[in-house]
Structures are given as structure tokens and as C-alpha cells.
Amino acid sequence: REAEVIHPPVEVERFSPSQPREDFYLVVSRLAPYKRIALAVAACNKLKRKLVVIGDGPLLAELRKQAGPTVTLLGEVDDATLQRHMQTCRALIHPADEDFGIVIVEAQAAGAPVIAHGGSGPAETVVDGETGVLFHEQTEPAVAAAIELSTLGTTTTLVPLDSEGDQNLRRDVPLAQAGVDFTTLIDAAVLERVCD
Fold first, then answer.
1. Three-state SS string across 73-111, please?
2. Cα 12 vs. chain centroid, distance in angstroms?
3. What is the pTM of this model?
4. Which residues contact 45 (CB under 8 A, 6 or more apart)?
5. Which DSSP string corresponds to the chain?
């Protein structure tokens, strides 16, 4: 049986690409165990890459202990600070296994390439080798290799969004559905099922 996939609404309008990118990677996440943020911290420690982590949660104190001199944990921040970091980071790192990943779409709307676990949702919204790099194992070496790959551009040069705002944002998936009439979609699905 076919199913209509309805992605969550994402406010992409609140972000705009900013150039030039600065020399830091970014994590924006709830700091919970299943988000696997420790992988990004460990990879950036190993590679001696600047990492800014935005978010709060039960692992904040533990991640602060793990953080080396190139890793900064900001905790919870206001919207202006979040937008500024999204629009200027070198890339967003997202090690969690997500069914969609709203922050991934927001980062692309802000012009940031994405380095993400390609388990499910990110594979639908990140064009591997173009708008980001997908890694397939949730391990520190896999995250570190993806960071290196994004830096070296060994497969394809990563192209952040241009000044038009959405040239490289994957559009075959309806990412910003804030205006979708969900009632109409549900009514159509029910009507189709009844008529079958």
C-alpha cells in the first residue's frame, strides 16, 4: 500500500545564507544520550577542529568534561545567537539517527553544509557530496572521516547555499510545509481508502 509522507513544517524563512563561513563546526541539539553528541566532541578533539555545541540537556556537564580546548559548549541560546551560528559555521554536525531532523533542514536554509548520520531522515534531505556528507556508522572514526572528507572535498566540492538562499537545498522533498492543509490531505487519503 502506498503512503503519503508528511514532513514536519520547518521555518526556513528565518535563516539566510551568510558569507564568508567561519572556521568552526556546529552542533545544535538536545544533549541527550541518543543524540550521540559525544561522537562529534570526540572527533573534533581528535582532529583539533573548532566545535561549538548549542543545546541543553542531561549530558551538558559530562560533555563539558570531555571537551578539549577547541570545543565550546554554549548551552541554551536565544534565537539571534542560534541564527548567527547557523549562518556562519563551516558545517553542521549531526550524529543522531533521526527520522527527519529539522535542524538539518534549518542549517541548509542558513547555507551550511551538513555532516550527518545517513541512517534515515538525513538521507532524504541532504544530497551526499553536494549539500553535505553522510556517514553510515555512529562511531568517532566515522564522524572524523566525514569531517575530513568535507574539508578536503575528496569526492565532490561541498557547495553551501548561494545568495539566492536555496539553490542547493534539496527540493524533491517538501521541506517547508507550514502552509499545507493537513485536513485536505487526510480527507483525500480517507476518501481514496473508502473508494478502493
1. EEECCCHHHHHHHHHHCCEEEECCCCCCCHHHHHHHHCC
2. 13
3. 0.78
4. 66, 67, 68, 70, 71
5. ------PPP--GGG----SSPPS-EEEES---GGG-HHHHHHHHHHHT--EEEE--STTHHHHHHH--TTEEEEES--HHHHHHHHHH-SEEEE-S--SS-HHHHHHHHTT--EEEE-SSHHHHH--BTTTEEEESS-SHHHHHHHHHHHHHTSSS------TTS-TTS--SS----TT--HHHHHHHHHHHHHH-
Query: How does pLDDT run across 29-51, given as a tens digit for each residue?
Result: 999 999 999 999 999 999 999 99
Q: How far apart are the first and last CA of the chain?
A: 11
Omega prior to 113 cis, within 30 of 0: no
Q: Which amino acid is at 117?
A: H
Cα separation of 86 and 108, whole Å? Answer: 9
pLDDT by residue (tens digit) across 163-189?
344 444 433 333 333 334 444 445 555
Cα 149 from Cα 185, distance rounded (Å): 41
Closest CA to 155 of 180, 135, 182: 135
Q: Is 194 exposed, middle or buried (0-12, 13-18, 19+ CB in 10 A)?
A: exposed
